[in-house]
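Could you join me in thinking about how sequence relates to backbone shape in a protein? Would you write everything just below, so we can both look at the same thing?
***
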Amino acid sequence: MPSATPVPATPTKAVAGKPSTKLSSTPAKTPKTPKTPKTPKHPKNSPLKVPQQHSPASIPRTPKTPHASAKKRKDRTPRAPKVAKIESEDEAAAEEDEEVNDIGEALGTVAMPGGPVWNVKAIGGGKLTGSKMVFTRDSGYFFCPLGSHIKVYSVATGMVVRTLIPRQWHKAPRSDLTVTAVQLHPVEDNQVYSAHMDGCIRLWDYEEGVTLQTYVPRKEPITHMLIHPSNPTRAILITKSPTDCSLRLHDLKEGKGSCVQLGKGKSPVSISTSRDGTFLCVAMPKTYWIVVLEGKMAVHRYTTEDEITAMALHPTDPYVAIGDTRGRITLWYCVDRDPVKQAVQSVLHWHPHQVNDIAFTDDGAYMLSGGEENVLVIWQLATRHKQFLPYMGSALLSIGVSPDQQLYAIGHRDNSVRIVSAVNLTMKQAVVGVQY
């Protein structure tokens, strides 16, 4: 069978403007579609570039027409400078007292060098049991020294009703204004005395919250203070200097007084007077003094074997109760105008640890004691019968008795104060401070 010979394809001419309808043996190539140019990506965290524009400074501004009032201002005569009101020292002090004490808080101003003037406000905080609590004469309130301030608490509500703050407290170091003692005025019901570490005694009207008078017996820290029961202008002070400790009997009205050197060493443990103010007892860690205040002044010194930790003078009977580190309370019958060579002693012992404080009721029938056992002990002195208030939560540091003998103010080591009813030994109120 004959083989088929391939016939060559005849080329065709393409007419201009008309596509060729005949196929060729070579397949035509499809033209490639042009790629869309990619948008350049900005690197991560790179700021976008904003096209530069003309700055406002380069744009010419039309000058502003001066306001009509500007011409008038230039023609005005300059005003006279304001003259500051000059106040007397008493007026300035009265104004400051009104601002500080009326609201029960101290507001002051402190100017920082090259900076603004800051308002300073007194806030609470500190040790509530630094010294013994004192009740008002009606037993409705009690005073609690708190650093440089004195808080007046209500027995009924336990709330602060007034804060007594020394004048210009914000300009003096807090350690210099620390309150060391508070005592009611013997005659005026609305007045109270306070002693401070700056050597000043301040007389307050606690109802108004203002300072009535400031006395400066001596520029030495006052550690203890009592006001004579029958003479409101006579202060009994213990002052301490770097070299020694002194007992001072100071007349606040005349500014004079007498001094007895107690010697070097530690500060006194306690001071106490009899109800009529005839005798004074000053207890040091190893010795105690009986001082005759009425008539010719006399000082009798006695020593003890154990370290003294608490002391109280009986309001009417001629003896002093002294507590020691062994937990004993010794009644020393040595309160007399003449020195007693061999004083009669009577020992009361219940506390297994040291006695921290002793207090008598105003009639002298009962004695209260407290220590490290968290127990308040009430001694009936005539029969030696004891009552106990246990589980008080913390060690007892101070004991205060109200004038009507119906309330006890107990200061504890955990920075709390508890008001206890003397009738049924129940807790009526509690004030709790910052735990240290």
